[in-house]
Amino acid sequence: MLRNILVSAVGSALLHFGLVWGGSLIDRAKEQLKKEEPPASMEVMVMPQQEPETPDATPEATHETDLSDLAPPSQTDLPSTSSDSFFSQQIQPPPPPRMNKGGVIAIPTGPSNASVGKGVSQVFDVANLDQRPEPRFQPRPKYPLSLKRAGIMGSAVVQFIVDVTGDVRDATVVRSTHKEFENPSIETVMKSKFRPGKKGNVAVNTRMEQEIEFKLSAER
């Protein structure tokens, strides 16, 4: 029995020694591997340096314009023009009236003194008539409100033509005391009716003047 105890003790001692010694061997083996393992290296990839691109000279050559195509045509290519072309016509001034041949009547281009109004062939003054025009109807002039409120009185002289029908034409103001009286005076004369003047018992166009008065007493 003692033998079994000794064998067991020796076996356990050997087992314990084996475990301790085996662990130390493992640690030494790891340290040796660490010493022998080469350090980790980092690989760095260096990109190749790119050269700057040079502009292609061929596109510029395509955009170049041939200056010979834009050159103006030579003098010989231009059509020659003559100053004596048949399209040009020289205007000759008319000859003076005195140089006309006999029997030819020169028609004057300017307005005739006898024709003053529109559609009036001949106008006579009152002094040259056998019978002067007589008024048949004449409205009362419209008094300007601003002058009426200010108490201003005055008049305007109107020149006009009484045609062969007794109507009034071409009324214009010759003079006036105030400009505000001019338009009402013209309106009054243009609305008036006359018996036409006569010369040789024939109705004629007559030039006349009439004074249109503006009085406050007449407005009351």
Describe this entry's structure for a reader.
- With 220 residues, the protein is of the alpha+beta class.
- The chain has a domain at 123-215: 2-Layer Sandwich (TolA/TonB C-terminal domain), CATH 3.30.2420.10.
- The chain contains six helices and seven strands.
- It has helices at residues 2-36, 57-63, 67-70, 145-150, 182-190, 216-219; strands spanning 123-125, 134-137, 154-162, 168-176, 193-195, 197-199, 202-214.
- Strands 1, 3, 4, 6 and 7 form a five-stranded mixed β-sheet that branches. The chain has a two-stranded antiparallel sheet with strand order 2-5.
- The chain starts with a helix and ends with a helix.
Defining key terms:
20% strand, alpha+beta, 220 residues, TolA/TonB C-terminal domain, 7 strands, two-stranded antiparallel ribbon
Structural class: alpha+beta
Low-confidence stretches: 76-91, 98-117
Instruction: Give the integer mean of the pLDDT values.
Output: 72
Main beta-sheet annotation: 5 strands, mixed
